[in-house]
Write a structure and sequence with these properties.
Blueprint (H helix, E strand, L loop, with lengths): L1 H20 L13 H16 L13 E2 L4 E4 L2 E5 L4 H8 L6 H4 L9 H5 L3 H11 L3 E8 L9 E10 L6 E8 L9 H6 L2 E10 L2
Parallel strand pairs: 3-4
Antiparallel strand pairs: 1-2, 2-3, 4-5, 5-6, 6-7
């Protein structure tokens, strides 16, 4: 009888400990064994220092996708490199779009001859404003930073043709309707963007 009581007590304590640990984000601390661990730490500290929850609206109009994975949002666009269809849906659903990066100002469309007449700097900023030559890659979920079942955090690299080093961007999706762990596909389909900010350059 005593042994049974001890076993039951141990089981209850274990369950309580597991429940108390749910939702707690693992804290990363130096030293690190590799660059990947260092960048995970930077991501952790970035959310700790810069996180402010904002409810972003989805892109309101139609979205076009070309055969070479260029996503077009009105007059702005970027290329998305990923084989993960779940990540592609983030852009197809309009959760992330170029206007979040470079604003809603639209430049008048110029003909090829007018573009050639611009200076090198003018051409650069014209194409940058339209989102041309922008590439998103290295998209990944930062599951170690997800505080609960309703929130998932991610990062990606943003590259431009005229800049040698890509910039890391971090973002967060929230799905208030999730009651228990769900597939990434189901989570994204009912989610909204609640954090988005540029981080640091990849050197």
């Amino acid at each position: 009888m005593y042994l049974l009581t001890v076993l039951v007590y141990s089981f209850v304590v274990t369950c309580q400990a597991q429940e108390s640990n749910q939702g707690k984000v693992e804290k990363l601390k130096p030293p690190f064994e590799n660059q990947g661990q260092q960048e995970d730490y930077w991501a952790q500290e970035f959310f700790n220092k810069h996180y402010i929850k904002v409810d972003y609206k989805k892109y309101p109009d139609s979205i076009k996708v070309s055969d070479n994975n260029v996503y077009v949002y009105g007059e702005k666009q970027f290329k998305v490199i990923t084989s993960n269809n779940n990540f592609k849906s983030i852009f197809m659903l309009g959760l992330l779009y170029p206007q979040l990066i470079y604003g809603n100002i639209n430049s008048a469309i110029k003909t090829a001859s007018k573009i050639e007449a611009l200076t090198v700097n003018e051409q650069f900023f014209y194409k940058l404003n339209k989102g041309e030559n922008l590439t998103i890659s290295e998209i990944e979920e930062l599951s170690f930073l997800n505080p609960n079942n309703n929130v998932k955090r991610f990062r990606f690299w943003l590259s431009t043709q005229h800049m040698a080093n890509p910039t890391v961007y971090l973002f967060e999706l929230t799905n208030e309707n999730v009651k228990e762990p769900s597939s990434l596909q189901d989570f994204i389909s009912g989610s909204k963007l609640t954090f988005f900010k540029s981080g640091w350059l990849i050197l």
